[in-house]
Amino acid sequence: MKDALKNARDKLLGELSPEGRWEGELSSSALATAVASFALKLAGKTELAASGLKWLKAHRNADGGWGDSPESPSNFTTTLLCRCVLDEPVGSPDEVATSILEHYGTDRTFSVPILTMCMLSGKLGRDWTVIPQLPFELAVLPHRFYKFIRLPVVSYALPALIAIGLVRHVHKPARGSYLRHLVVSRSLNILLKIQPESGGYLEAAPLTGFVGMSLAGAGFGDHPVAQACFRFLENTVRVDGSWSIDTNLSTWVTSLAVQVLAGNLSNEQKNRLRSHLLQIQWKVEHPFTHAASGGWGWTYTPGGVPDADDTAAALIALRLLGCDTGVAEKGIQWLLDLQNRDGGMPTFCKGWGRLPFDRSCPDLTAHAIRAFVVWRPAVHSGLWNKMKRAIRRNLRYLEMQQRADGTWLPLWFGSQADPNHENPIYGTVRVLEALQELDEAEFPIIRRMKQRGSQWLENTQKPDGSWGDSIEETALAAGVSGKGFDTLLKMTESGTVFPASPIGLYFARLWYSEKLYPLLFTIGALQRHTTNSQKIM
Prior knowledge:
Elements: H1 2-13, E1 28-29, H2 30-42, H3 46-58, H4 76-85, H5 93-104, H6 108-120, H7 146-149, H8 158-171, H9 178-194, H10 205-217, H11 224-236, E2 243-244, H12 250-261, H13 267-279, H14 308-320, H15 325-338, H16 362-374, H17 381-401, H18 424-436, H19 446-459, H20 471-481, H21 485-491, E3 504-506, E4 510-512, H22 517-536
Helix pairs in contact: 1-22, 2-3, 2-4, 2-10, 5-6, 6-8, 6-10, 8-9, 8-10, 10-11, 12-14, 12-22, 14-15, 14-16, 16-17, 16-18, 18-19, 18-20, 20-21, 20-22
């Protein structure tokens, strides 16, 4: 066990960059590659587009389709977009439009961009009425009204709302749409204002590609926003011609790495890591989610957005790195201000709770609890009292969200093997981790929740000692349950081999794998087992 833990730690330490961060590596994405290649094709960047098409052809599944990651089974959406850019048959326009709209329901965040690419590629004919008109004119309203006007997209998707609404309007203006004509210029200015320096909205190739292709399709391909989108895609293409869904999840994996390696880092490494995390804390209001300053996003690059999960992770890491309390208090207050009325934590924005990523979810709520608890000894009593009240509300929310079988479901993680693509292992483990850090005498509500969650975890361990279908799931469950370590050692060949599985869910439920996840989760499990063994001795 000790040798395996040392092997894994050494491997993770070897990934630490001189800049004081971990980069990680997201899997290449067929969907991102299809969208980016098509956008660049419209922009006249034919060489890069051709390299993307070559990658797609080389990574087609045996059934003729594509999945989100190279390890994923084929799905309708990704296959549709790949066929669009490769100019292959996709079915009748009516069938395609109906299938996409029914699949995504009332959330237009992804259905309308997909249909727009289909239309621009010539696969939906010429009747733009099959594509719902996004109300891009609403983007000119002050952001404080967004939660009242029930936008058909989630908070992070305003660039798509504007660009895709604009191309639909240009090709098929509705009767009485004089107002839309008046705000076209203002809408483009908003796109320019909220575009990050890198050119990549959310640092995401799919979102940025959809914006770029829509502007080009609307006749604005030479606009500075469109040109910046195309430059971002040029700058983020991989050597093999593919794109990942996002530039990186560096802040996330860096914060998780600190949590499992804090006791094995030199003072110099700690100083660099601390400086890096403090540098990338948001110091201003975010330009289009309007999140307050004080939080952290998933990446150090400028297109990231502050969110609850990364803010909680960074706060825990900074506590272990010896951060100044004053800086931490800003992050803590950011989390406190984000808490929804139901007591849970949303991803980005308080009060938008109608669509995914703006609703409360158990895994983010649990992570916030852990961040509050770890800073308890360092903050003044007044702030701790606020945190304590927030925790009580968090716990009431978690009690309501615990399912009949004792599990909790996460938002950002899933299982491709599950019929509903849910991952109760990840969600339940993350909540149990938080509950284990609380005192039952102080928070008696947790006793029953812990018992039910732990019992489910024990009952779902497979005969071979594993959980789920991946190293990631087995490591997480082993760390909390205290079982399955022999199996984990076999799966990782004593801490030396860590194949990543696509358990991550990105925006619009796109699957991805991150090469550091199995390594991070394994170290956490082995370390917890070693610590518990020493306590017993």
